[in-house]
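Problem statement: downstream parser choked on a complex file, so we are re-checking the raw output for the cobalt (II) ion run. The parser issue turned out to be on our end (a line-ending mismatch), but while we're here, posting the original submission so the record is complete.
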Amino acid sequence: MQIETIETHAYNDQNPGTSGLRKKVKVFEQPGYLENFVQAIFDSLEDFSGKTLVLGGDGRYFNRVAIQIIIKIAAANGFGELIIGQGGLLSTPAASHIIRKYQAFGGLILSASHNPGGPNEDFGIKYNVGNGGPAPEKYTDAFFQRSQVIDSYKTAIIEDVDLDNLGSQQIDGLKVTIIDPVTDYAALMQSIFDFNLLKQSISSGYITLMFDAMSAITGPYAKRILVDMLGAAPDSVINAEPLEDFGGHHPDPNLAHAHELAERMFSAGAPTFGAASDGDGDRNMITGSNIFVTPSDSLAIMAANAHLIPAYAKGLSGVARSMPTSQAVDRVAACYNIPCYETPTGWKFFGNLLDAGKITLCGEESFGTGSDHVREKDGLWAVLFWLNLIAVKRMPVADIVHEHWQKFGRDIYCRHDYEAVETPVANAIVDCLRQQITTLPGQSFGEYVVKYADEFCYEDPIDGSISKNQGIRIGFENGSRIVFRLSGTGTVGATLRIYIERFEADATRHNQDAQVALAELIELAEQFCEVKKRTGRVAPDVTT
Ligand code: VG1
Ligand code: CO
């Protein structure tokens, strides 16, 4: 194999965020930009010569081009085999599974997840380690360090690889295998859930469903699993064809962006169950006829009922949630007497706990739930989990949610996002919040008395690594919380996320609108951070 060393100049902005490196496509198209980052990753890894790398993405604009570039750099750097999803496609959870199943050295996942796609939109790349999970911070820090001094990359002089035909081919010393992106993942799902029961519940009409793939990666997965394997009506999967620009939409599964599904689920004659996933298939939004399940509640409900699902029949070893996720799952863990861990935002922080067997289930408020079956959050898995629960309990979604609140109380929750705030303004907001950390405790604001204020710092219980500055928390005596943090996935300016929650034990007050129930805390959040005042905005860009 002929290998060329190409001189390059370093870019100074290749610091991976919450989930890999995300930039505008135009940034990735700069000469050497993608090449540098991929070479920086390989330069930071050790002992992969002759080993296997998994490669695939969510199919967004630039996916195919990037895959061809990466194949050549991986070949030149000495990988022995590349396993690539047909058409260059792999959902994030499927990629995680394939890394594990074929005991690959690692994988590169090309996605900017819920961010929009297209020539003027976003692209992203993320490295996953041998356990199938996102590279921990010690890796991503090393990639960034290397990217700042890199002066050349290696590439193999080979033809573009045919990504569309299944099978293996040998290119000099390199084996390239194109696999069906769905088959292995579908088999994994079948091993976790009661597919026979699901088939019966769907064919008898007890469960009717609608799944919105948002013109992103989960279309082929949902069609195979929900329609072909479980017998759902073909039109129950909408926006099923992956498009390079997601049809011009944000492939972000929330009520604002999955509006077609939302309208259907809140209309007369809605299906019993509705769900959506994101660009790369790791998120999920759960709805039932006339009800939306907040992701934090979804995690808690899954934890409380997991023993009803075949793969979790023995119960859970423990659970974990990201810090801004509501404390609903903590109540379940306390009731079942299992540990509950609080981690920083981002799936990479769950990997060690899952590997060590400390937790079985984990999740984030940002529409992400998952278990020890892979090392990523998993959208369709969550959908099947809920379907399986509905089928076993013979209860509609609304009843399952209300039963849960009756038993555990309700953690009323919302998140407000202020997107593309000018970076200096966002930094000033964070500075101002930091200054209040010492003065706030003990102060009263109506019924809310500040119990603590801090900046979340996480010490990984398995490897002892420390992650600082993970968001500012203000907790009140009555258990309510306001959390502020800046997003690590955006590509324009800074996005301020404000997370607000209040516990309501009284069942007669469970059916409140969250925005109304949280109005006072929302006001307090503005008083603390002054985002509206400083940006001149009147409302958040997205409320979930
Ligand atoms: C967001 C979410 C976080 C999630 C991350 C990746 O990060 O808040 O919970 O893990 O996206 O999800 P941030 O830093 O913007 O808040 V995905 O579906 O983009 O892989
Ligand atoms: Co995603």
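For whoever reads this later: The pocket of cobalt (II) ion (ligand 2) is lined by residues 92, 113-114, 278-280, 282-283 (CB under 6 Å).
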